[in-house]
Amino acid sequence: MQKVPDAPSSGNVLLLPGLMCDEVFWQPLMAGLPATLQAQAVDYGDADSITAMAEAALALAPPQFALAGHSMGGRVALEIVRLAPSRVQKLILMDTGYLPRAQGEKGETEKAGRMALVELAQKDGVRAMCAEWIKGMVHPDRLGDAALIESIVGMFANKNAERFARQQNALLARPDASPVLASLKIPCMLLCGRQDSWATVAQHTAMQVLAPHASLAVIEDAGHMVLMERPEATIQAIRNFLE
């Protein structure tokens, strides 16, 4: 891949949310970036594949931009780099992964877990599903933080079970992004919560092996929803990288 020059300290930042997330997740960062950086959160609409999500984001994006993706959004970000490498100036991958679903028993176990959540959302509603899902997605000490938990559950509850099913199917069919990571030449930062049990620090270290020029920022006392859990530390790390 041809090397793209470093982005200046002004420009556009495209924000790619994770599963069932939206601009609510990104709001702390959007409020915390300098005025010279124009940030835009993407809505994937009814997209039901990682590639379709990437294409939806590219249709809204300016000619060149910095890119930040959280969780599922990190996979979308890597797909955008694959589809339009010359348009991406800097890349931030947060609490995410790069491998496809495993073959065999491990992959079937993942599928069963995701489909159980889809069934729960269809049967009892998205809010009830998220109340179960969130138990493993924030730092254990934050499960009693009513304001934080409601902000996450409420964000999920603004979407329906059909969208949840489409996004889960997209994740089950996710592509292998190893070649994209290995070909990266643009500035890249990997970032995750220390206590993220879904997208672990070790997983991000493995990504750094494929993209050795990437930096790694680990946010202490945070789980998978790192920006909402520890906004100040997360924003500072992102600002340092973008500026």
Overview of the molecule:
GO terms for molecular function: hydrolase activity. Keywords: Hydrolase. Pfam families: Abhydrolase_6. InterPro entries: AB_hydrolase_1 (IPR000073), AB_hydrolase_fold (IPR029058), Carboxylesterase_BioH (IPR050228). A six-stranded parallel beta sheet has the order 2-1-3-4-5-6, sandwiched between helices. The chain has helices spanning 23-32, 50-60, 72-83, 104-124, 126-133, 146-157, 161-172, 178-183, 201-210, 226-229, 231-242; strands at 11-16, 37-41, 65-70, 88-94, 188-193, 215-219. Helix 2 crosses helix 3 (72-83), helix 4 (104-124) packs across helix 5 and helix 4 runs antiparallel to helix 7. Helix content is 49%, strand content 14%. The protein folds into two domains: 11-100 and 175-242, 3-Layer(aba) Sandwich (Rossmann fold); 104-168, no CATH class.
What is the global morphology? Answer: globular
For the sheet with most strands, the description reads: 6 strands, parallel
- The CATH topology name of the largest domain reads Rossmann fold
Which residues form runs of ≥5 with pLDDT under 50? 1-9
Instruction: Briefly note the structural class of the backbone.
Output: alpha/beta
Number of strands: 6
Can you count the helices?
A: 11
Strand coverage percent: 5-15%
* CATH A-level architecture of the largest domain: 3-Layer(aba) Sandwich
What is the CATH superfamily classification of the largest domain? Alpha/Beta hydrolase fold, catalytic domain
For the record, what CATH class of the largest domain applies? Alpha Beta
User: Looking across the biggest beta sheet, what order are the strands in?
Assistant: 2-1-3-4-5-6
Q: Output mean pLDDT.
A: 94
Could you give the order of the helices and strands? EHEHEHEHHHHHEHEHH
What is the CA-atom radius of gyration, in angstroms? 17 Å
**Which bin fits the share of residues in helices?**
40-55%
